[in-house]
Amino acid sequence: MSMLSVRDLTVKFAMRDQNVTALDNISFDLGEGERLGIVGESGAGKSITGFALMNLLSRPGYIDNGSILFEGEDIVQKSESQMRKIRGDRIAMIFQDPMVTLNPVLTIGQQMIETLMAHRKLSKAEAEQIAIVKLREVYIPSPQERLRQYPHELSGGMRQRIIIAIALLLDPDLIIADEPTTALDVTIQADIMELLLELCQSNKVGLILITHDLGVVSQMAERTLVMYAGRIIESGPTREIINDPQHPYTQGLINALPQQTLPGHKLKQIPGSMPSLTTIPEGCPFSPRCQYATDKCRRIRPEIVKYGPAEVACHEVNRLHETQSEEQSA
């Protein structure tokens, strides 16, 4: 049985004139200790997926349909008091900006110790010792001193390491990391991702990594979901998706990577932009930006179908594959 099983999950936002769909019947599974990447442009629905998995959606957003089974329990049906026992304890989340996550008026020690004592029957001294151990695990120097410091006294990289330590405090089964290095310098990003990977592997913790960076996903995730306009348009083993993408959108994301362009040449980009939730096209939502789009693509929404080791939602997947084969043999 999968540790996490999402089925037909639909999230909507109640607007003044209409209800708009942010997630449209997405389904996927995550095994115990598995690492899954969710990629796509801004507005694809990645972060909404993370918030829905934590049952953290607030009005006007709401789960309209579907189930989220975590270790056999449907999170969608849980009350807020029941979810508080799951969040942080069994599922932890790492957000984009550590300065938003950490309370600026409490010391690092207060935040870590209070978290432990809220979920475990521990004395303050016992909680402090666990906090020190977790800070050491993320290579924080002089952890006893850090417990007495406030978030503003630490560097961005140090704050993000502390966020990871807090996520691991209660030995969760699953960590959801939403763009965990966005607010950091490029030189620090690789160190943080390497640390997160090391800790997930050593603690056998499942990881859902939400990012726009396919380069990061290729190093971190065993499987990848590619999202567009609130839908999963391709999924499969990460290596297969990176080396042999089946959907034109996935191909566009890979071509847009800087390393795919020769020095001195303009970076490649996907023409157009992600549609807003109120103007998602009929048929395939990617069709206005797709060079392979046909009348069928513009009229009929493609269903997810098995194609080799991956699953893809594209009417023209065979033509795309033939074109790629011709280009490679040329």
Automatic annotation (TrEMBL):
Source species: Thalassovita aquimarina
The ABC transporter domain, residue ranges: 6-254
GO molecular function, one term: ATP binding
One Pfam family named in its UniProt record: ABC_tran
Bilayer topology: Peripheral membrane protein
Transmembrane portions of the chain: none
Major subcellular location class: membrane
Subcellular location: Cell inner membrane
Family: Belongs to the ABC transporter superfamily.
The protein, known as: ABC transporter ATP-binding protein
SUPFAM superfamilies: P-loop containing nucleoside triphosphate hydrolases
Keywords: ATP-binding, Cell membrane, Membrane, Nucleotide-binding, Transport
